[in-house]
Amino acid sequence: MSLTVPADLLEQASNGEVDDEQFVACVRTSLPYAWSVISGLAERLPSASGGFADNRIPPPDEAARGQLLRALASDAMRGALERHFGVRLAFQNCHRVAVFGPASPQGAYAEFVSPRAQILNQSPELVDC
Question: What is the 3-state secondary structure (H, E, C) of the chain?
Fold first, then answer.
């Protein structure tokens, strides 16, 4: 299961829309490792060189890896996180996540998500990533 949804939020969703802040709060409590990585990158972004901040540290265990994968694989979660932090997220593998802000150079995002960058980011220890 991707999220642990409180009963009141589930009821609200059954009766209508859920706003981003409620959804983001659910993501934050359900996926604390993913939240800490993404929020930490968003905090580093203003002082990051190259117009983006990225994470190169592998998750400490499979549960943490799963959280990051679930947060970034879900269009709803990814979009809500991007809107919440005011960033654009990019993802290369089980741990290489980057955040790009509105002031980031146009080419920085394009380079990060390029096939070249994906190939250069590979290593034997990431085969089962």
Answer: CCCCCCHHHHHHHHHCCCCHHHHHHHHHHHCHHHHHHHHHHHHHHHHCHHHEEEECCCCCCHHHHHHHHHHHHCHHHHHHHHHHHCCEEEECCCCCEEEECCCCCHHHHHHHCCHHHHHHCCCHHHCCC
C-alpha 99/C-alpha 79 separation (Å) is: 13
Which tens digits make up the pLDDT trace of 5-24? Answer: 989 999 999 998 898 999 99
Is the Cβ–Cβ distance between 99 and 52 less than 8 Å? Answer: yes
Whether 101 contacts 87, CB under 8 Å:
yes
In this prediction the pTM is 0.86
